[in-house]
Amino acid sequence: MPEENHIKKAAKIIQDGGLVAFPTETVYGLGANALDPDAVIKIFEAKQRPSFDPLIVHICDIKDISRLCLNVDERVYKLAKRFWPGPLTIVLPKKKIVPDIVTSGLSTVAIRMPANDVALQLIDKAGCPIAAPSANKFGKLSPTKAEHVMKQLSDVDFIIDGGKTTVGIESTVISLSNAGFKILRPGVITEEEIEFIIPRDNSNNINEAGLASPGLLKSHYSPTKPMCIFNDGDYYPESKKIGYLAFQKSKSALNYTKSEILSEKGDLKEAALNLFGALHRLEDSDVDMIVAEPVPEVGIGVAIMDRLRKASYIESEKY
Ligand code: TXA
Ligand code: MG
What we know:
This protein is an alpha/beta fold. Strand 8 and strand 9 form a beta hairpin. The chain folds into two domains: 4-195, DHBP synthase (Alpha-Beta Complex), CATH 3.90.870; 227-316, 3-Layer(aba) Sandwich (Rossmann fold), CATH 3.40.50. Helix 1 (4-15) crosses helix 6 (117-126). The termini are far apart. The chain is globular, with a radius of gyration of 19 Å. It has helices at residues 4-15, 37-47, 64-68, 74-83, 100-103, 117-126, 146-152, 191-195, 208-211, 268-284, 301-311, and strands at 20-22, 29-33, 56-58, 88-93, 108-112, 130-131, 158-159, 172-177, 180-185, 227-229, 242-246, 258-261, 289-292. It has a nine-stranded mixed β-sheet with strand order 7-1-2-6-3-5-4-8-9, sandwiched between helices. A four-stranded parallel β-sheet has the order 10-13-11-12, with helices on one face. Bound molecules: threonylcarbamoyladenylate and magnesium ion. Threonylcarbamoyladenylate binds at residues 24, 26-27, 29, 53-56, 87, 89, 91, 103, 106, 108-110, 114, 132-134, 170-171, 173, 184, 209, 212-214. Residues 24, 26-27, 29, 53-56, 87, 89, 91, 103, 106, 108-110, 114, 132-134, 170-171, 173, 184, 209, 212-214 line the site of threonylcarbamoyladenylate.
């Protein structure tokens, strides 16, 4: 736990319109006062993030939902009761108090209450909701420790070092319509777990939130080295130094210049936790390319495969 005066100092910076990188349970966030458009602009500048990609607003008190959002129905409170604080982000119609820059002009705002004491204290002490995307350059690997933030971002007023995050991949993002919820970005809270609490929208309708969702970006979370997903029978040139990202302990991982094992025993939750750390180490090593072993696409595996596919999406495939 960082010293209390670090959190105090960071809260003051937020109040004064500055930028603070802070830990959450998922990844580090780059935060600013969500109600101050001049502060929020700095997030987009520091991350080199396009202004069409809306931010998540972090709260520390359930009362903030109705302060920031319209038409909050019973389903939201059911979800909050079951999953908050925790890695679930809910997209809801916004009130005027939320500046357009936060939501990229959309009529909805993404809200979550992080399960991390440092983050909750920071929001509480700052006395305002905190808008925060992951604290990485746009499209690059998400940070799961303070060093990862330092590696990528220079225009940050203060970084609170809260050690390694405990979940490792970004929150599950959902939209809600009268028909039910839809997953916009998979995370460790799975569709099945949410469906246990409220109904799912099984239609193919795409609402405004769906159109603006992170799922639309095919390339994201990318290491600075080329990356691909391993297929049985694939051949890689011997001249290339290959970094292998293995799901679990396997003999094949030994054949590569460097290898990282996400979970020795093949546990998906552990694999999610280790994913970005392993990718950062491979990115920082002397390998020429990264080859990732696919993981079983069930439960949390859906979110891991989403990140692996986006990380390995090649520029030329965009068109
Ligand atoms: O775990 C997380 O969610 C982390 C921590 C810091 O909270 N944050 C995070 O933020 O991953 P970011 O900005 O990297 O990803 C948030 C995603 C964006 O890709 C954005 O497209 C989507 O949430 N989003 C935000 N507001 C939205 C809205 N109104 N409608 C649809 N999607 C939205
Ligand atoms: Mg991000």
